[in-house]
Amino acid sequence: MHMPEPLHRSLFVPGPAGRLESLLWSVAANPEGKTPPAAVVCHPHPLFGGTMHNKVVYQTAKTLHRFGLPVLRFNFRGVGLSEGSHDKGEGEREDVSSALDFLAREYPRTPLLLAGFSFGSWVGLRVGCGDPRVTHLIGLGLPVSDLAGSQGFSYLDACAKPKLLAAGEFDQYGPPHKLDAVVAHFPPEVKRQTSVAIVRGADHFFTGHLAELDRAISDWMAAQFPDLTAGEA
Question: Is the pLDDT of residue 147 over 80?
Fold first, then answer.
C-alpha cells in the first residue's frame, strides 16, 4: 500500500560544508491548479543563538504556509545538526543556495520566495537578489546598524524584485530611520518594488508583536499574490 508523503517532515539538505538540518512544510495539491511560490526562510545569527526555531522565523514560515506556500527552514552550517562551522556570512550564502536548489528540485518550474530575519536577511537577500529563480523577497529586522549602514546591504540597490522590508519601531540593530536611509538610496525602479513596514512598539525580535508582523507579511502577500487565499492563523 502506497503511503502519502507527510506534509511536514524533517530532512537533511546537502550543502557544500555537509548536510544541513532542515524542516519542510509541504502543502496538499491545489485542486484549482494554482501554483504558489515555494519559500525558504533564513534564521538569525548563529553565534547569538539563532536557529531555524527562532520565533520570528517560525512566525514567518507559518504566515507563508497559510497562503499555501511550501516552506523550507534550515539551520546554517554549524548550527544544530548541520555540519560545518560558522563562516561569517560567506559560506552561509552557499547554504542558502543549497536550500534554494533543494526547493527547485522538489517544486520544479515553481517561482521561489526568499525570506530572512536579521543575519538571515543580510545573507539570504543577497543570494535571492542574484538568483533568477527567486522572484520575491522578505527582509525582517535588517541589521543596518551592525553592518556599516547601507554598505552591508548595498547589493539591494540593483535588486528590482518585489520585496518587503519590515522592522520594529524600536529595533536596536536596524532602526527605522536607518532602514529608510537605505531605501532612500535605491534607484526609482527598485524603490517602486520595495514595501517598508514598521511594526509599532516592536523591538528587533518583534517581542510581543508577532501578530502584527503576521499582519504586515499577510498584507504584502495579499497584494503580491491576489489569487492566493490565506487560511486560518
Answer: no
